[in-house]
Design goal:
Layout lengths: L6 H8 L1 H12 L2 E2 H8 L3 H13 L3 E6 L2 E6 L1 H23 L8
Antiparallel strand pairs: 1-3, 2-3
């Protein structure tokens, strides 16, 4: 059973600020003002990172007056976690069955 991990999503989450944003949004829905306060990022930098997260489908937005709230999409994170679980199971089976390619 071979499996692969969504490398595009991994690239999106590999950035430390984006990972911090995702971690914060796992706990509550926040507006950009809250995220600026929590991360210390500049508004333009934060907006660029939120755009990347939106385009990757990691967060959803909810307009509320003049503010925009951001919410994590747990299904996307669960899918990635499932891909890693599958990868771990493949590795476990490889070790248990002593699967190795012979050298030429």
């Amino acid at each position: 059973m071979m499996t692969s991990v969504d490398t595009d999503l991994m690239r999106v989450l590999a950035d430390p600020l984006r990972l911090r944003i995702v971690t914060l949004l796992a706990g509550e829905t926040l507006c950009s003002t809250h995220l600026i306060e929590e991360t210390g990022a500049r508004q333009t930098n934060l907006s660029n990172h939120l755009k990347v997260l939106r385009e990757a489908g990691v967060v959803d937005t909810e307009p509320c007056g003049r503010f925009t709230y951001y919410r994590l999409r747990p299904d996307v994170i669960a899918s990635l976690a499932g891909q890693f679980a599958d990868l771990a199971e493949t590795a476990r089976a490889t070790v248990e069955n002593n699967v190795k390619r012979s050298c030429p």
